[in-house]
Amino acid sequence: xxxxxxxxxxxxxxxxxxxxxxxxxxxxxxxxxxxxxxxxxxxxxxxxxxxxxxxxxxxxxxxxxxxxxxxxxxxxxxxxxxxxxxxxxxxxxxxxxxxxxxxxxxxxxxxxxxxxxxxxxxxxxxxxxxxxxxxxxxxxxxxxxxxxxxxxxxxxxxxxxxxxxxxxxxxxxxxxxxxxxxxxxxxxxxxxxxxxxxxxxxxxxxxxxxxxxxxxxxxxxxxxxxxxxxxxxxxxxxxxxxxxxxxxxxxxxxxxxxxxxxxxxxxxxxxxxxxxxxxxxxxxxxxxxxxxxxxxxxxxxxxxxxxxxxxxxxxxxxxxxxxxxxxxxxxxx
Amino acid sequence: xxxxxxxxxxxxxxxxxxxxxxxxxxxxxxxxxxxxxxxxxxxxxxxxxxxxxxxxxxxxxxxxxxxxxxxxxxxxxxxxxxxxxxxxxxxxxxxxxxxxxxxxxxxxxxxxxxxxxxxxxxxxxxxxxxxxxxxxxxxxxxxxxxxxxxxxxxxxxxxxxxxxxxxxxxxxxxxxxxxxxxxxxxxxxxxxxxxxxxxxxxxxxxxxxxxxxxxxxxxxxxxxxxxxxxxxxxxxxxxxxxxxxxxxxxxxxxxxxxxxxxxxxxxxxxxxxxxxxxxxxxxxxxxxxx
Amino acid sequence: xxxxxxxxxxxxxxxxxxxxxxxxxxxxxxxxxxxxxxxxxxxxxxxxxxxxxxxxxxxxxxxxxxxxxxxxxxxxxxxxxxxxxxxxxxxxxxxxxxxxxxxxxxxxxxxxxxxxxxxxxxxxxxxxxxxxxxxxxxxxxxxxxxxxxxxxxxxxxxxxxxxxxxxxxxxxxxxxxxxxxxxxxxxxxxxxxxxxxxxxxxxxxxxxxxxxxxxxxxxxxxxxxxxxxxxxxxxxxxxxxxxxxxxxxxxx
Lengths: 333, 290, 252
Known about the structure:
The complex is a heterotrimer. Chain A is mainly alpha-helical. Chain A is built from 14 helices and 4 strands. Chain A has helices at 11-15, 25-45, 51-75, 83-101, 105-124, 132-153, 171-194, 196-206, 208-213, 218-244, 254-267, 273-288, 295-310, 314-324; strands spanning 2-9, 162-163, 246-247, 325-332. Chain B is mostly helical. Chain B is built from 11 helices and 2 strands, in the order ααααββααααααα. Chain B has helices at residues 2-30, 37-53, 59-85, 91-109, 136-158, 160-170, 172-177, 182-204, 212-229, 234-254, 260-274, and strands at residues 126-129, 132-135. The termini of chain B are far apart. In chain C, α5 (123-133) crosses α6 (152-165). The termini of chain C are far apart. Classes of the chains: A mainly alpha, B mainly alpha, C alpha/beta. Chains in contact: A-B, A-C, B-C.
């Protein structure tokens, strides 16, 4: 007797589609719990953590921002192997503003975000016309070269970087700011990509000839997406600068480029929640494995390969599937 | 000074060309982006070292084994990883990148770090051209670069396998209808690219030490040359290598050595503004995709 | 009597791809409201001609004027904004999206917004209406099916709907009938005729000559990139050059 696996939507999922969600509390809860519970848990419990784990959460949040930024770029077909470019530029802008002009974080953060976003967009504009692989190559190479450039020319503090920068007034403020940024980015990006605008962007990634013939300037949209993604990355860098009170060459380190990609691939590309989850898995994990030194990078690399090949949809998609659909064996006659 | 610049510039260009050739071959001709390229380079270097020092195998034999190992590695990566994800956009970039990362950092973890990891030169000593001394190893690098270029040109244009490579690059489905086994050709191109990385490694590494950082450097330099010269164009790689190689040497000799890195950056910047797909690239942006 | 400015005028249009001349010195005028058929053997440059007009490819030489405006070398999105839209020979929808969602992208374009007076309105509703116009049966809910699950007949109609969504003045249909059965073609022809009644100008590239000649006002024949004949359908088919192009000449 032959059987096959059948997957169908759960009853509660079908009932909670569209306007029917308002019919009962059960349906509404079903929709709200996946989003609300982790967020509330994070917001409530994180201030209660010890100093060490609070730093881990903040570090995770920074990587999560970079991962979501990566995901946004990926939606338009822009594979970035150089998130550290955005991080480093954001870091140096806010660091320089603080070091040379004495501006406080409340000013350097937004300026670094917007200015950094603009700068990175303009920088990468020529590459937008080319196939995705060129974007990958250029983003990989440029931050590493910029790092060596700083080393060679000794500008902006050279190898030592800019030190003694202004920290946040107190750790809870920092926690609050980064969590706010995290939530705004997550829900904001999901909202954007869920709208018709998002359809256009994904259309560009899928079949750009079609979008071009529909009267849309695909390069303009790619540029917009690039700005959105890079701004978030620059924010992460600017925030990191004030957390560490330091801006320097390590801002362009490979680590900031690789971790977000690994997190996104593990969590689920294209979902924004996936990269967030990926970061919240990988970063604490790597903290716990800190004793193993270089083995950390080995794990990132292996995670990347295994997930790209074995579970390309990512953990989030898997969880989502389990939550929304049930599977059962069905006899096939 | 001028003669020295000419000669060392040539060597520098040869090094860059050697580094870029394998990556360019694999991508340009078969469309497979092998971002584990730097890892293969380092792996080959360490393989030779291990074979030589731990197992006492004669140098030349160790070199040949290492090149073979690299080719096998390429095949393994292709059949183990790339085939499973072919068709998905940019997945092979991420997967090979992750793999390369894991390999390189594994070496670092097992403490293959330090100045004792060097390879001996093939022929010791140096000779002089005019009043410039150049060591034999550097000359060998130059000759191998030239030789490989000719060899590859002959291969891709005059052998059946080479032509099959180009067929797959141009139109995979049509090539399939001609009975060309796309998978095999893809695997071979990957193997060949890795073998070239190994050749580059064994010739260039004797000049310094084998360091994990070198793997990243190699990837960066190879990518930089490909960005400037245009992916897929052998002519482009050569021209880009010469341009960047000589510019770097001139900068080092007449300005200051630490500006050398700036050269690659400027070259990339100029190319991005003038002709983003590379000086000699075949991609005509939109036209080729309609 | 002054001559009306043609809606579309191509002068000396030439396109070389390296050593291959795909289009060679093609001139033609197209008056508003006409349906021009473009025929010719495979490889005669018909699709390249479309690519040139719609901006997907830049001409090596020559000019294209639309309503007297020089649009030579304009990028596709600008050409669409002026009022020219096209279909593609190889239909490629967004396979993962439902059929009606496929129309969201063209409905998002600036031209649609401009023509609607600055607001987009409910795109989903407009999309569904458009699909009904091209024959997606409303009660069968075909419009909600994933594009990947639709047969070729529906995909071609979807392609037509996409070009209609842009409210163009000139529609270029590149082998819309290819791969369709006689019945399917017969069901699409009325839609094209309706477009004509609405005053749209249409260029149709076709191999299905019988169906084309029934609706075309004029026909132009290309061979090896050159225009070898133009005029009424029956006159064109009598021309010896055209006969030779399609059927070959007598063996010596």
